[in-house]
Amino acid sequence: MSESPVDPRLVVSEQGLTGYLGEFRRKVKGGELGPLPVVIGLIVIWLVFQSLNSQFLSAQNLSNLSVDIVPTGLISVGIVFVLLLGEIDLAAGAVSGACAAVLAVLNVNMGMSPGLAILLAVAVGAVLGLIHGFFFAKIGVPSFVVTLAGFLAWTGFQLWVLGPNGTINLPSDGFVAGLTSTYFIYVIAAYGLAALGVAGFLAVSLIGNNRRRAAGIPYRTTGDIVFRTVVLAVVAFGAAYILNLYQGLPLALLIFLVVVVGTDFVLRRTRYGRSIFAVGGNIEAARRAGINVPFIRISVFVISGSFAAVGGIFAASRISSASQATGQSNVLLMAIAAAVIGGTSLFGGRGTTYSALLGMLVIQSIASGMALQGVSNSIQFMVTGAVLLAAVVIDSISRRSQKAAGRA
């Protein structure tokens, strides 16, 4: 029996630096950019702002940044699912605000326990997403129209729930407020999470490699897996070190990372996730393959609504209140921008929930850096818009390159 083949693209590792440079040029020419543009962009942004203000990369600022990305980042995770179908959810911001209002009324005005109030608020988000998905998948209303109608309706619902005062304050020492104000001060927490993440990545990579080898399909070399693991370890333990210099591991960041990793596993490792990519890539081919397209479409909007609710809860936790401003203003735009800047295609069929994490890091880094410099919000919006346009241009060029190379 012949030995299972090694992925020919990874044979370049035997050629040293020359081989990797050649492989890099091949990927760029073929439009296989992956997260490279956003990672390079993030590094440039950090270097620029650090050169302008030495406080930018301080432990306190980076720790605050890691919590600030969570509310909108959670909404963006749900947006990623919708974008993978090549659709859009314009109601996510309004849903987040409405569900935050529901949480505040149940917890503060009606005296319900925080845990139950959170569950009911998320359930409301899922129901609102279900309504969007039903009209889109069953009635045939374009997602743009149905979610735009949802944006208007749920904004009104939010105002109605909050009542004439327009604001409901949450206990500053309560459970909900603690979601974004709790830190694990013991250094073992951050380092333990880093070690767990690196070990999990290595284990999943090795198990996947063994399965591919046993099936007789191309697999990565051991050296390549070790290299990727070392890079991840450097990033993870470096982040843990920085967080421990301030107040330790934020609970909000821990929850966000668990959500990102968990949803990425669902998308890449389950039949349901592969069905989402199939529908987003070619809906007719997916239907002929026996995929329940209406179910996939509806479920994706339910997921988006649920994560919008969770994001709204964390937004209310951050300021210890739910108000008419929660989920409004530029929240929706930033959630969509984060997903696109992070690498999720607007055309469907390509992306990952890590896009929400990377994209929010870029957006919040710009906001944080400009705030330290005293730059107005107007300039921040213009710069963020330019970054978003650059991300879409890169996505379009990447798709064109892939088509030219026969990979799209």
From TrEMBL:
The chain crosses the membrane at residues 33-49, 69-85, 90-110, 116-137, 144-163, 183-204, 225-243, 249-267, 295-317, 329-347, 354-372, 378-397. CDD domains: TM_PBP1_transp_AraH_like (cd06579). InterPro entries: ABC_transp_permease (IPR001851). Keywords: Cell inner membrane, Cell membrane, Membrane, Sugar transport, Transmembrane, Transmembrane helix, Transport. It is found in: Cell membrane. One of its GO terms (molecular function) is transmembrane transporter activity. It comes from the Bacteria. GO terms for cellular component: plasma membrane. It is a multi-pass membrane protein. Part of the binding-protein-dependent transport system for D-xylose. Probably responsible for the translocation of the substrate across the membrane. PANTHER family: ABC TRANSPORTER PERMEASE PROTEIN YPHD-RELATED-RELATED, XYLOSE TRANSPORT SYSTEM PERMEASE PROTEIN XYLH. This is Xylose transport system permease protein XylH. It comes from Nonomuraea dietziae.
